[in-house]
Structures are given as structure tokens and as C-alpha cells.
Amino acid sequence: MKTLASIKYFLLGQGLLRECCGRVRREDGEIAGVVCDSREAFPGALFICKGAAFRPEYLQQAAGRGCAAYLSEREIPPGQDLPGLIVSDIRRAMAAVSAFVYDYRPGRPILTGITGTKGKTTTAWYLKAMLDLWERERGMPDTGLISTVLNYDGTRQEDAVMTTPEAPEVHRLLAGAVQSGLRYMTMEVSSQALKYQRVRGLQFDVGVFLNISEDHISPQEHEDFADYFSAKLSMFRQVKTACVNLDADHAQKILSAARKAERLVTFGCDPRADLRCRDVCLRGKRIAFRVVCDRFDECFELAMRGSFNIENAMAAIAAAYVCGVPVHCMKQALEQTRVPGRMETFFSGDGKLCGIVDFAHNRLSFERLFEAAFQEYGAYRRIITVFGCPGGKGLNRRRELGLISGIFSDAVCVTADDPGPESQAGIAAQIRHYVEMTGCACVCVEDRAQAVNAAVRMAARCREPALILLLGRGSEKYQRIGGRLVAGPTDASLMKQALADYDAAAFRSRCALL
């Protein structure tokens, strides 16, 4: 544990401290941790005052919960009796202080960072499963995870709120992993985490770059694709061994940036890759493929459907290869691992309807999901797609996803997906405009549960077997509506209930005919 005085001198040494407010003495008590959400403040914590939307009442709430001091770019208005450290750059200071307070040391645990436009979560789960199997063989505990779905540090498993948490949470999880005896941690690294310095100062023993396409373009995220791509590439400044997908768009630019790493390992179908993917095929309901490298020539199978998951599996294999994981652990993990909210499949009792729940939420993921639908679910001749777009961010998605869904679907149902500060009706109207440009039928149903039920009813009216694609949210349990996080059922729950209602209605219909 560190004292407020030691944090003061640390910030001075980093050139970040501008001034102190209140009493900051050498004999001040220990700082028990760092927090930037006033609702999660606790006694003895250092509270970070960050963001353009910060309000003084947040500090009041944190003080009421027992925080010992605050860190800010400006002195908070009079009335606060907490000591404060005023810094020149709150983002840099937050990352640096979090690392200092939680005693971060590179390599403890061995850290893999995964970035890309699509597939981060599945890749992270695949790699964690490989590392877990290897650690169990050696009598060690399962490994850590920081992902879009959940976070695990060896002691606590918690639902995630964002892909990559703020720096205090990242360092709390890393410290928890060390205390729990975990030797490996796998984490997703978003462009926002890189741009806003949530992972500043971390050393990634392995850094994976999956793919890149235009996404997260808005005034609140990235001003254009160049800004988004540059943020992604900046991860290589913190990477010891880079794993790069040679099949990715802009692969040469990615390779150029990867030269900042000490070592480079490539993967993909490209024959120049260090780990080469060959002989992709379907074995029953499973996707199989061969991987050839200097250590092995082996066939792998995936428990999850979706041919796009081969890319995620190859990325996990490459990272596991760098870590020294035996190939039999890699194979077993891929044969067993399924990820919540990713290519989850449900069927009606009569087999006429198939529902797929997936997190696909940008152009690249939509294109690949529809490709998989046509290749792997050919028996289902009609496609009904349900999705929405978030408010205040990713503004390019409304056009791109509207056009893609309209081209490949027989009908589209636009619904809510994190409308946030915007009107859901306004978002839906924009998406509908682009869907209808393709000639595809489109309806807007704001309530997500009602939208799924409507889609199942549309599919039931089709004369041929139909596929219902419920996209964009995966296993997420909350939506941002206005300024609030509103709890709700997962998409898997909605799909299962809608298909159960269809089965019940079909049963009643059959009974009526008897």
C-alpha cells in the first residue's frame, strides 16, 4: 500500500503534479486503492475526477463513501475537506498512479493483449481455455481474463461493463491475479482504451492484432478511420512479441507498426505466415482446419459455428505458440470452448426455425456473419435479421449495417441497442432508410423482446425454413437509455423465449386440428 505523500512524490517524479490542495503530509494514512466511479468508492481510496461530464457532486458522493483524497486537473470548488493532488494530464496521471498504487510489475502476470475490429472476445476466450488446460496439467490455477463479457482475477468473476476497463480497474484486476497466484492474464484492448490511455504503461508480453475495418467513427470516439487505425497500431509500442494476421486488410501497414515489438510471429492462410491455415472443411456440424508451423502439423476442430471463427482460433493458436502451450491443449480447448453471445444457436421444436445470437455489430462482423449463414445454414432459405445501432457513437454503422442487412435478408426488424443520448425512433428511422434502399422489407420495433417475437412470427409465416439473426448485443445484460444503464434479459434469453412461444402456439394449433 502507498500513502498520499508517496503518491505526491511519485507524481512529482513523473512531471505530472501541478499543486496540492489541503493537507498532504508524510504521515498521511495508506491509500487502499484507486477508483474513478463514485458509486464504487470505498474507505481509504484515491478518487479520480475525470471526464468532461464530471460534476462536483461525484466527489461529494465519493467522500461520503470514505475516500481519502482526490486526483484532478483542477481544484474542486470549496466545500470539500479532502486533500487533492492537481495534475497536468488526468489520463496519464490516472494510469501512472494506478500502476504505482497496485504495484504493477511487467510480466506479473504474463499479459496478452488482443486488439482488432472483430473477434477480440472469442480469441480471448480461446486463448484462456488453452492456457487453463496447460496450467491445470501443471497443478496451477486457471488464468485471468479481462473481456467484454466478464473479468476474472483468480478470486472474483464479474460481469464486464466495457471491453477494456479504466486504468484503476485494470490494475486492480492485475494485482488480484498476482495475489491469487495466476501466472497468465488475457485481455481485450479496445481502440478507446489505447486512445484514452487506459493501458498506458502496461507491457504486453504478447500482443495480437486480428483485423481492421472502419468502426467507432463519431465525435465521441474517433474522428476518422486514420485516427481509429492509429490508435489500434499504437499497442505495438507496448508489446514484446507481436502476433499479426497476414490476411487482415492493411496487413503491410500493420506489419510496419509491429516492428516496434521485439519479436514478430505471423498467422493466417497466407503461405508466408509462420503459422499457416490450410484445408478448411466441415466435419458434420464442426469446422475443421489444419495448422502448419515449425513445431507441428495438426488438424483442429471448433466447437463454435461460423467459419470466421477460424481467424480467431488462429490468433489464439499463435499467442499460445508464443507462450509455449502444448498443441494438445490448443486442440482440446478449441474442441470444447463456446463463448456466451457468440454464434449461439437455438432451434424450434419442429426444426423449421433456427435462431442465431451473435455480437456482430459492425461492417466487418456483419459481412462475415452473413457469409457464414449462407455457407453453414443453407437449409434455411429465408433470413430475418434483428439489430439496432447505438446512440452517440459508431455513426457509420447505421448506413453500413442497414445496407448489408438489407442486401442479405428477406426482412429486417430494427430495434433498440444502447440508444443512449439519442431518440431510438430517430436512430431506427436512419437505419430503416438504408435497409429500404436495397428493396428489403423493414419494420421498427423499439422494445427488443417484442422485436424478437415479431421476427419469429415473420419467420413462421415463411413457407421455407427460416433463420432469425439476433445481432449486436450478444450476452450483454444492460442497455444505455438516456443517461441510465437499464437491466434487461440477454439476447439468448429473448431468442429461447420467442422460440418457446412459437412451439407452444404450434402445439395448440395441432391440438385444435385433432
Low-confidence stretches: none
Name the CATH superfamily classification of the largest domain: Mur-like, catalytic domain
Structural class: alpha/beta
Number of domains: 3
CATH class of the largest domain equals Alpha Beta
CATH topology of the largest domain: UDP-N-acetylmuramoyl-L-alanine:D-glutamate ligase
What is the molecular shape? globular
Spatial strand arrangement across the major sheet:
11-10-9-12-8-13-14-15-16-17-18
What's the helical proportion of residues? Answer: 25-40%
How many β-strands, per DSSP?
Answer: 26
SSE order and pairing:
Elements: E1 2-3, H1 4-13, E2 17-21, E3 30-31, E4 33-35, E5 45-48, H2 56-64, E6 69-72, E7 84-87, H3 90-101, E8 110-115, H4 120-137, E9 144-146, E10 150-152, E11 157-159, H5 167-179, E12 184-188, H6 191-195, E13 204-209, H7 225-233, E14 239-245, H8 251-258, E15 263-268, E16 275-283, E17 286-292, E18 297-302, H9 309-323, H10 327-336, E19 344-347, E20 353-358, H11 363-376, E21 382-387, H12 396-408, E22 411-414, H13 424-437, E23 441-444, H14 448-461, E24 466-471, E25 478-481, E26 484-487, H15 491-513
Parallel strand pairs: 4-5, 5-6, 6-7, 8-12, 8-13, 9-12, 13-14, 14-15, 15-16, 20-24, 21-22, 21-24, 22-23
Antiparallel strand pairs: 1-3, 2-7, 9-10, 10-11, 16-17, 17-18, 19-20, 25-26
Describe the protein in words:
This protein has 514 residues and is of the alpha/beta class. It has three domains: 100 residues, MurE/MurF, N-terminal domain (Udp-n-acetylmuramoylalanyl-d-glutamate--2,6- Diaminopimelate Ligase, Chain: A, domain 1), CATH 3.40.1390.10; 227 residues, 3-Layer(aba) Sandwich (UDP-N-acetylmuramoyl-L-alanine:D-glutamate ligase); 167 residues, Protein-Tyrosine Phosphatase, Chain A. The chain has 15 helices and 26 strands. The protein has an eleven-stranded mixed β-sheet with strand order 11-10-9-12-8-13-14-15-16-17-18, sandwiched between helices. A six-stranded mixed β-sheet has the order 19-20-24-21-22-23, with helices on both faces. Strands 2-7-6-5-4 form a five-stranded mixed β-sheet, sandwiched between helices. The longest helix is centred in the C-terminal third of the chain and has 23 residues. The radius of gyration is 24 Å and the shape is globular. The mean pLDDT is 92.
